[in-house]
Design a protein that fits this description.
GO cellular component, one term: cytosol
CATH superfamily of the domain at 26-128: Hotdog Thioesterase
Keywords: Hydrolase
Shape: globular
InterPro entries: Cytosol_ACT, HOTDOG_ACOT, HotDog_dom_sf, Thioestr_dom
GO molecular function: long-chain fatty acyl-CoA hydrolase activity
Domain HotDog ACOT-type: 20-132
Radius of gyration: 16 Å
Length: 148
């Protein structure tokens, strides 16, 4: 797998005070069924949303099926509450022959306000898999579309 210094053109500085300057991969509303016994949104629900967002990025790059291999450095910074809008941003950080590292950030917005805050982030590692469910090499990158 490539090291993290081999970044794609879609990077995000951790020093930025707000969410990444791109559209979220997924937006979801935290619902009562997603709570833990204390009434806050269950961390597993949030992690599942992050896995979906990262998987979307990985599948687009692989142009096919991918499997989550590991999650590195998951850090919960603040809670998510029922009714919050959760925006998940994900981008490819690096890739190897069959694997990809995808950074995901989750940001929450209380439904009646505009302010947002980052609630968690993690690095997801995926491997491209073939029809035999075994690792398969990533296809060549597609050329960027021409603009007129």
């Amino acid at each position: 797998m490539a090291n993290e210094s081999e970044q794609s053109s879609e990077t995000h500085s951790d020093a930025e005070p707000g969410p990444p300057d791109r559209s979220p991969v997924i937006r979801a509303i935290a619902m009562p069924a997603d709570t833990n016994p204390a009434g806050d949104i269950f961390g597993g629900w949030l992690m599942a949303q992050m896995d979906l967002a990262a998987g979307n990025v990985a599948a687009r790059r692989a142009r096919g099926r991918c499997a989550t291999v590991t999650v590195e450095g998951m850090t919960f910074l603040s809670p998510v509450f029922v009714g919050d809008e959760v925006s998940l941003y994900a981008w490819l950080v690096s890739e190897g022959r069959t694997s990809m590292r995808v950074k995901v950030e989750a940001w929450r917005r209380y439904r009646e306000e505009e302010a947002v805050n980052k609630v968690t982030e993690a690095l997801f590692v995926f491997v491209a898999i073939g029809k035999d469910r075994k690792p398969t090499p990533l296809p060549p990158r597609l050329a960027a579309p021409e603009t007129k």
